[in-house]
Amino acid sequence: MEITHEEDPQSSEIPLDDKDQLLENAVQFIKMTMETKFNMSDEEIKEIMEPIAATGKFWHEWDELKSILSFRLKQVLAEYPESQVDNDVGSQDESLTGETYSELVRRLDEALLSFIEGPPFTLQRLCEILLAPRSLYPKLSKLALALDKNLLVTSTLTRSTAHLPCPSPRSSPRPSPG
């Protein structure tokens, strides 16, 4: 007896457009889940990012660190006045690449999230930028170019096995010479 396509429950003949849509829906669901579960204070984020910015090493699972960086990236971009402008195509908020603010955020976030195996080898500089963006880049367009350069790399880092450095006391007196 021959099983026809309609009778075969194992058949996976889904039109290509439907597969693309299913994949896109799955990606959006994962992103939404990651964002809704994220619950960290700015101080906790800085405590994680500062040692990375200082040493270039990371001690956290990449998926956890990636969600922290994604959150901080969106937070930093939202701090610029250009983020408050109307997002209509052709508005003043278009960057040098001709995209709107929301397109810029989506593109940079997707570039960050595209690192699967580990963080970009530019992780240290990325953390430096995300910790003090306004002091380095007063305009959103300049920040966007810097982030672009740091996210366009293909090499990745591996997690450090050394112990996490202890934070130095911020107000400790320096020994006097002599």
From TrEMBL:
It comes from the Eukaryota. InterPro entries: PPP4R2. GO terms for cellular component: cytoplasm; nucleus; protein phosphatase 4 complex. GO terms for molecular function: protein phosphatase regulator activity. Belongs to the PPP4R2 family. PANTHER family: PPP4R2-RELATED PROTEIN, PROTEIN PHOSPHATASE 4 REGULATORY SUBUNIT 2-RELATED. This is Uncharacterized protein. It comes from Spirodela intermedia (Intermediate duckweed).
